[in-house]
Design goal:
This protein is α+β, with helices and mostly antiparallel strands. The chain folds into two domains: 123 residues, no CATH class; 67 residues, no CATH class. The chain has five helices and twelve strands. It has a six-stranded antiparallel sheet. It has a four-stranded antiparallel sheet with strand order 2-5-1-6. The protein starts with 22 loop residues before the first helix and ends with a strand. InterPro entries: NGN_dom_sf (IPR036735). It comes from Hoylesella shahii DSM 15611 = JCM 12083.
Length: 204
């Protein structure tokens, strides 16, 4: 997720399971986030570069069946996608643009619109909810592409009860089950939820 150590040099290999910062540690400070698309599968190189520049990164993870080098029984995770990194806007935009421009790999920051060229800023609360829903500990979880997420129709809701209390998203149906769908630029994640625990956001 953030400043993780790597096993191997290529991004399609497994990320070691050093203790990850919690979502609240990563996104609980109010800073917005950027979504950065990579035009190669050099995810490890990108993470090392950004963390070396003092930036905080997040990459959604999922459990892998592979084992650690020491075969110590600890869980091992791998990235859900290898060409997308979320970066906290913890520095002024000119400084961040300089960091992006000096990268030795091809990348593109997702923009708000093509006219102004302004970067799309993901609000801190939206990013926090997304991180919480990306937890590998959640079993009934599905990742979607941006186009797949847009095709899902549903009602904007907030979870009012249970362990997911406070999360917001769209209540959608899939395979006769209800899910809470959260979208960010380039992807979405949905987790199983009881519709009785949710209330429409318009009632808040």
């Amino acid at each position: 997720m953030h400043s993780t150590s790597m096993i191997g040099k290529e991004s399609n290999e497994i990320l070691a399971t050093d203790e990850f910062p919690s979502p609240h540690e990563l996104a609980g400070d109010g800073y917005p986030w950027y979504a950065v698309r990579l035009f190669s599968l050099r995810l490890n190189e990108a993470l090392n570069y950004f963390s070396g520049a003092g930036l905080t990164c997040f990459v959604p993870m999922e459990c892998s069946e592979q084992k650690t080098i020491d075969n110590d029984g600890k869980p091992v995770f791998k990235p859900v996608v290898f060409n997308l990194v979320f970066i906290k806007k913890s520095q002024e935009e000119p400084a961040l643009k300089r960091i992006f421009a000096e990268a030795r790999f091809k990348m593109s920051v997702i923009k708000k619109d093509k006219t102004t060229g302004a970067y799309y800023e993901i609000p801190s609360k939206q990013m926090l909810d997304f991180m919480l829903m990306c937890s590998p500990e959640i079993e009934m979880r599905k990742f979607l592409t941006a186009s797949e997420a847009k095709l899902k129709s549903g009602t904007p809701v907030m979870v009012k009860h249970g362990p997911l209390k406070g999360l917001t998203g769209r209540l959608v149906r899939s395979s006769k089950k209800y899910f809470l769908l959260k979208e960010v630029p380039e992807m979405g994640v949905m987790i199983k939820v009881s519709r009785w625990c949710c209330v429409p956001l318009e009632e808040q």
